[in-house]
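Model it.
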Amino acid sequence: MKNTIYLDNAATTPVHPDVAKAVMDCMVNDFGNPSSLHRLGLNAEKRVKEAREQIAWALGVSTDSIFFTSGGTEANNLAIIGTAMARRREGKHCITTQIEHPSVLNTFKYLEKEGWEVTYLPVDKRGMLDPDDVVKAVRSDTVLISIMHVNNEIGSIQPVEDIAKLVKEKGLSPLFHVDAIQSFEKLDLKPRRWGIDLLTVSGHKIHAPKGIGALYMRKGVKIHPVHWGGGQEGGIRSGTENVPGIVGFGEAVRWIEQDIDKKYLYMYKGILVAGLKERIPEMVINGPEPELGAPHILNVSFPGIRGEVMLHALEDKGVYVSTGSACSSRRKSIGPVFQAIGAKKEAARGAIRISFSHMNTSDEMYRTIDIFERCFKELKGYIRR
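Modeled.
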């Protein structure tokens, strides 16, 4: 795949070569169960400890507040269901937004079936939430607020630091959970300093393997486990740890923290936006202004061209993008994010999500602009015929 340009990094990222080496080394040499008392077990436990330290350091938190899971979806489920179950005697009301990831929205739909009440807050046309709306929605029986940091489809950045501060200033009691799966290692993220109680991250969004994630839980917070077994991860998430995945996660964080200037993502986005605007003036940007959105996500539409048609035209020329969230990309109706921002049907059905990573290059951005222009002209010509 030498000539391909992979721009679907919000769905998943390629594993970095250094990460792959670390994972392979772990699988071959440190394959012991970290709960075993012999040397191989202790070696595996040491590698888990080192990865936990690396992730905790990147988040600015203590190592005993990081709990490994099988991925972001499980971490979100654990944070939400675990909090609801632990605090059900205090109340059965939760707050979230209309544009959360399915792993959050569908978890709240489950809680509604089990007797909880959920308030789904609206956003504006940029996909932005007003912090005051969060405070106004809190009731005496509210036990949890769950808001994503970066939206996975349009890249809007929610003011989670401001929300946490406002909730604290008002003396409100709900726990605050943040889905930071799209923002970890792309934006500044300091949950302890900001006053966030629970925060979820995922490995495969930052060049680690799939199947590994983590939950940050502030000291003093109590949640109800949703897995029962041998008591691994402090009893919060039982089950033998995915040691190679954990090692890969830690190595990916180490590589980014040590070698990467995160400003490059905004540079790539700027190159692409400027070039596409110049070559295809008809292009529509969905969501926030590019400079106000996440550095690695750009969502655009091309009038008269359906998203999946453009996607396959680009794929034929070696550029890989998405029409939206990989978890719901086969959905035929307009998704909740585009409904929430009031997008027109044509824009929603024509939407293309372009997402960058630390492994892309500026040269790929310039090549992508040329390919987009060629595909647009070819498809418009075909439509006119």
